[in-house]
Amino acid sequence: MKKRVLYAVVFALSLNLFIGAQIYLSSAQAAEKTNLYQQMDMFVRVLEKVRQEYVDDSKVSYDDLIHGALKGMLATLDPHSEFMEPQKHEDLKNDTEGSFGGVGLLVGSNGNTLTVDAPIEDTPAYKAGIMRGDRIIRIEGKSTEKMGWPDAVRKLRGEPGTSVTITVARPSWPEPRDFTLTRAQIKVATVKDLDGHRAFPVSADKIGYVRLTQFGEQTTSDLLDALKKMKNQGMQGLILDLRGNPGGLLPQAVKVCELFLPPRQLIVSTEGRAAESKDKWTAQGHDTLNGMPMVILVNNSSASASEIVAGCLQDVGRAFIMGEQTFGKGSVQTIIPLQDGSALRLTTAKYYTPSHKVIHEHGITPDSIVPMSTEEEEALYVKRQLGGMEGLDEERRAKVESARDVQLDRAVDFLKGMILYKDRGRLQRKMAATKR
Predict the structure, then answer these.
(1) Quick one: three-class SS letters along the chain?
(2) Which of 176, 193, 274, 429 is the most buried (most CB within 10 A)?
């Protein structure tokens, strides 16, 4: 009897809690809808007030005001989400298809400042010596302060063979400098050896080196060819250089990882609020190097797909990461076309490494942090450029020639130790077998 009474009390309490929760949720949803209506009413009132009373009537069409409001709304979320007007949406599609001429700069807007996110290797801007972090303050003599990102990009682009003059400021320069760049069709080799070519020689210590400048359509196949060349020369250790690599195509990052992993190994996963944003990628191939010692070099300019590769191979213990903290761009942007030709670029998910470490805004922390000064980075940058030493005075040329790539040197020393340890173990096993 007592148990029946107790069950009845528990049931009544549970029912009351459930009904109370439903009433609370319903009232909360109703309040949220009421608040939405109030905010929309305020938006429309402000919109009409601006249209009727703003001093310059050429700037207050409904298109201008609503597009401006949408840009502001998306800009408050994160640096990678944005509202794209029809022309910018078209430009983005052209970027994906590679059908444009330009100077080879990935640029972003930091407040009112047009900033270089990364120069694309083998392009006019890269060969001229423009670096990540440089500020473009004028294009064809016109200030970029109030130009806006879309207008600036359109001015940098144009028919291959035409020229554009930009004024660049860098903290280490006493004053800005002008660069006249001849536009070109942007087609880039993404896999290079130490000299910027595709010979891929192996050092006397049997250490191979390959640098990925970004992740393009041919990156994995070109990297596989490079690995085959170095294996045929007796390579026993590999340095994969991802410094300055701004990222690129996710499928290529996954396929690059597959070259060094066993089947079914988790590479990267994505998670967001929508069900379709949750996904994971696993290795489908096999380790082409059979566990060969490997170092990955990264720095502050290694971003996105570079961080996916470094984070994955670090997590599973397949590679030793060396250099500096990476950039921390590990989010997924979905392009959502709108009916008037405009589109939203909306961050819908974040990337996670196999151990579920978030990349976005954190980056990848190297196993061994090896810093480089700005002067050392600039010297390395000049050395990598075709004809980079031309035009330098004697003092500057001497400094560049004597500068060491300390991160690469450290990677070589690490691999030499790993190879020596492996050889010593092999010798000990052979001697033990002989004694038996």
Answers:
(1) CHHHHHHHHHHHHHHHHHHHHHHHHHHHHHHHHHHHHHHHHHHHHHHHHHHHHCCCHHHCCHHHHHHHHHHHHHHCCCCCCEEECHHHHHHHHHHHHCCCEECCEEEEEECCEEEEEEECCCCHHHHHCCCCCCEEEEECCEECCCCCHHHHHHHHCCCCCCEEEEEEECCCCCCCEEEEEECEECCCCCEECCCCCCCCCCCCCCEEEEEECCECCCHHHHHHHHHHHHHHCCCCEEEEECCCCCCECHHHHHHHHHCCCCCCCEEEEEECCCHHHCEEEECCCCCCCCCCCEEEEECCCCCCHHHHHHHHHHHCCCCEEEECCCCCCCEEEEEEECCCCCEEEEEEEEEECCCCCECCCCCCCCCEECCCCHHHHHHHHHHHCCCCCCCCCHHHHHHHHHCCCHHHHHHHHHHHHHHHHHHHHHHHHHHHHHHC
(2) 193
Does 430 qualify as catalytic in the annotation? no
What domains lie within the chain, and their CATH numbers? 101-185 (2.30.42.10), 191-371+405-422 (3.90.226.10)
Which residue ranges in the chain fall short of pLDDT 50? 2-3, 5-15, 17-18, 21, 24, 98-99, 386-387, 427, 430-431, 434-435
Task: Encode pLDDT of 130-158 as tens digits.
Answer: 988 899 999 999 998 877 777 888 889 88
Active site residue 409: no
Indicate if 399 belongs to the active site. Answer: no
Say which of 304, 306, 331, 342 is annotated catalytic: 304
